[in-house]
Amino acid sequence: MKFYPKKLCVVVMLSSLSAMSHAALVDSILVDSTDMSDIGFKLTGKNASLTGNDFMFPEEGHYCARKYLSVDLKAGDNLSVEIDELEALQNGVALNILTWGEGQYKGFGGATGTNQLTGELTFDATTVAVGFCRYNNKDFEEFEISEFSAFQTLEEIDVVEATSVIPPVYESCREYTQGSGSTVLIVDDSEPRTLQELFDDGTIQPGMVVILRRQEGSLELDYKDVSFTKDDADWLTIYGENGASIESIKISSVKNIRFSGLKISKDQSGYLVDTYNTRNIILDNNFISGGDDYQTWDAQKWQEVRSGIIFNRAKCSTAYKNEMENLRMGITTYTYDDNMTQEVQSLKVLIKDNFIRNISADFFRPIGTDITIDGNTGLDSYVSEDDGDPNHDDFVQGFAYPIGTEFQNVKITNNFYQSSTDASRPYQSPGQGIAFFDGLYTNFEISNNTIISDMYHGVTVFWGRDGLIKNNTMTVLNDTSKHYMWVQSTYDKTGKYAPENVIVENNVANGYSLHSNTAALANNNVTITREEVAANLEVFNQDDLIFDTSVKEDSVYHVEGTGSDVNTIEKSLESFLK
């Protein structure tokens, strides 16, 4: 572990962590002088003396001149001593470094006549002696050492300011900042304590930047970590570099923490990132996986594998540019209370530009108020009812519980979903698109999404009030299947409540099922049946599962301004890859 107080300029996260931090080796001067008497060398050897810059070693034997320093050096630090090159050679001196700390001692000796010596500390040192010796002294004339320096080589973490790539947050939430006064803490193999222990003993504090460079076990934080429960606490940033990993993260009642550039993976059930009653938590540019050996999994394993992220009553959370794979669930927002007040419901969560693949249940579950799911890519649903999995898979599934709950301001925009990219793989599952089957969602927006799957529900909202379903494209991925992907706006499950003021316009789908209330407001929607998609979409390769869902310009179904412009997998990944 290494501390670097106040070395960080501005923290920024690029598309990979190795690009985030720019490390430079910087010399921290311990001794630098051209006046040898002023340094205060301790001389050993019979009748040794120092006048100005002139040393006198008058008799045969062993002589040394050393400067003793009280220091705070860490294991892994480099310490160097340097004198004039010609003087080192002419005077036959050998540089040396002696270190003490934690009851340990180690010395470093240089070759006679060499003007620089560097030693790497193997333990934390509190005292060092730097200087030179003349062994078997036979030349009794005085000699001059005109300059002497000792320095510690530090790794300075300098991150270039680029505010455009600072992770976004939900509107009205606290923005992420990292100031020039931050202390950088590097946690690598030289630190004996685990990351959990560094939190538990108070080493890690708000406002710090922790750069993790090794593999860690699970991390848990809660209300007992008092310094992280304060609303005004400075942002803590935990960056992963050099393949750093944390097995899982479970946090509750803490605030203002960013996790970035980490591999998060563990082979067991539950969520890999589990948050409860938190505020201002950012997860960005992480790789989150239920395991690497998914090609060997059977149907039961796919149902038992870990899920990705849950924001449970977690306000002002962000999931941004994470790559996630081989999971049960992708990203879930959730809130529940016996008294579902607006304060309880309002989560203010932003889920943006994530790339998620190989999911055996739902990619996203927006359960709560004030949630935005924007610019994400979801590929490949696994295990269906035919494989023994009772869950009906969805790209996005929302439900408002308990009955009577009304969720508001859920926006699902600019996303892309394809239920399979490999027709030869096992455990195909024709996932549904975007569906709100239970409870009431109001003031919602579902726009500019592309859904490709062999199921029925492309975009379906049961009940719904004051909503917009606009510029979406949905189609089957096999035009010989018995399914077709529709837009549906209809009653709730009880048949009592009809949709109110739900506008459906500018969509392209295989069909529509609209309640009369919605149909009266529908406008400029295009129907391309499953039998017609191959002839009318720009690319429809159902053998290799390659698609471009743009309607051909010479098609009779081409209507300017309709459908989604997120028309290919490549287009959907542009923001993720920036």
Strand order of the largest sheet: 1-14-15-18-21-24-27-30-33-37-41-44-47
How would you classify the helix and strand content by structural class? mainly beta
The CATH class designation of the domain at 28-155 is Mainly Beta
Look at the structure and give the mean pLDDT: 91
Describe the structure.
This protein has a domain at 28-155: Sandwich (Jelly Rolls). The protein is mainly beta. 8% of the residues lie in helices and 45% in strands. The strands form 9 sheets. A 13-stranded mixed sheet has the order 1-14-15-18-21-24-27-30-33-37-41-44-47.
Structure summarized in a few sentences:
With 578 residues, the protein is mostly beta strands. It has ten helices and 52 strands.
List keywords for this structure.
13-stranded mixed β-sheet, eleven-stranded parallel β-sheet, 45% strand, elongated, 578 residues, Jelly Rolls, disordered N terminus, 10 helices, mainly beta
What are the SSEs and their pairings?
Blueprint: E1 2-4, H1 17-20, E2 22-33, H2 36-39, E3 42-44, E4 49-51, E5 54-56, E6 61-73, E7 78-83, H3 85-91, E8 94-101, E9 104-109, E10 116-120, E11 125-137, E12 143-144, E13 148-158, E14 184-187, H4 195-200, E15 209-212, E16 215-216, E17 219-221, E18 236-240, E19 245-246, E20 249-252, E21 255-260, E22 263-265, E23 271-276, E24 279-284, E25 287-289, H5 299-304, E26 307-312, E27 315-320, E28 323-327, E29 331-334, H6 342-345, E30 346-352, E31 355-359, E32 362-366, E33 369-374, E34 377-381, E35 394-399, E36 406-408, E37 410-413, E38 416-418, E39 432-438, E40 440-442, E41 445-447, E42 450-452, E43 457-462, E44 465-470, E45 473-475, E46 486-490, E47 500-505, E48 508-509, E49 511-514, H7 516-519, E50 526-527, H8 533-536, E51 537-541, E52 546-551, H9 569-572, H10 574-577
Parallel strand pairs: 14-15, 15-18, 16-19, 17-20, 18-21, 19-22, 20-23, 21-24, 22-25, 23-26, 24-27, 25-28, 26-29, 27-30, 28-31, 29-32, 30-33, 31-34, 32-35, 33-37, 34-38, 35-39, 36-40, 37-41, 38-42, 39-43, 41-44, 42-45, 43-46, 44-47, 46-49, 48-50
Antiparallel strand pairs: 1-14, 2-13, 3-6, 4-5, 5-12, 6-11, 7-10, 7-13, 8-9, 8-11, 51-52
